């Protein structure tokens, strides 16, 4: 297995997800992120470990079905996205809400 290119890893993570379900997962040391659809699990793991300096034990991904969007009489689709739930090693944490 080849190691992912470290120059492009930061671009794989789009944004962290802060919803009610995602904040409940924080109690289990699981963090949710939107990632690029082409990102693989090893790339996501390497990106999170590089960006936040933590140890990732598990990565789960999901690609929900595309939602339709109507503008007038034209029917289109919302952009496709991929969601990653990252489990961190016990004792590690990511500060999603830094103290101001």
Give me the side-by-side strand order of the main sheet: 1-2-6-3
CATH level-4 homologous superfamily: RRM (RNA recognition motif) domain
In total, the number of strands is: 6
The number of helices is 3
Helix content: 10-25%
Low-confidence stretches: none
CATH architecture: 2-Layer Sandwich
Give me the secondary-structure topology.
Elements: H1 9-12, E1 13-16, H2 20-25, E2 30-35, H3 41-52, E3 56-62, E4 68-71, E5 74-77, E6 82-88
Key descriptive features of the protein:
Alpha-Beta Plaits; 100 residues; two-stranded antiparallel ribbon; 6 strands; 3 helices; alpha+beta
Summarize the structure.
This protein has 100 residues and is of the alpha+beta class. The chain has helices at residues 9-12, 20-25, 41-52, and strands at residues 13-16, 30-35, 56-62, 68-71, 74-77, 82-88.
Description:
It is a single chain. Strand 4 (68-71) and strand 5 (74-77) form a beta hairpin. Helix content is 22%, strand content 32%. The model has no long low-confidence stretch (mean pLDDT 90). The protein is an alpha+beta fold. It is globular and about 50 Å long. It is built from three helices and six strands. The strands form two sheets. The chain has a four-stranded antiparallel beta sheet with strand order 1-2-6-3. It has helices at 9-12, 20-25, 41-52; strands at 13-16, 30-35, 56-62, 68-71, 74-77, 82-88. The longest helix has 12 residues, at 41-52. The chain has one domain: RRM (RNA recognition motif) domain (Alpha-Beta Plaits).
């Amino acid at each position: 297995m080849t190691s992912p290119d470290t120059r492009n890893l930061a671009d794989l993570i789009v944004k962290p997800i802060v919803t009610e379900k995602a904040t409940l997962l924080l109690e289990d040391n699981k963090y949710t992120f939107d990632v690029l659809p082409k990102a693989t699990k090893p790339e996501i793991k390497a990106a999170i470990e590089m960006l936040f300096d933590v140890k990732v034990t598990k990565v789960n991904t999901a690609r929900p079905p595309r939602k339709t969007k109507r503008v007038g009489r034209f029917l289109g689709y919302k952009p496709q996205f991929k969601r990653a739930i990252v489990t961190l090693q016990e004792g590690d944490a990511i500060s999603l809400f830094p103290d101001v």
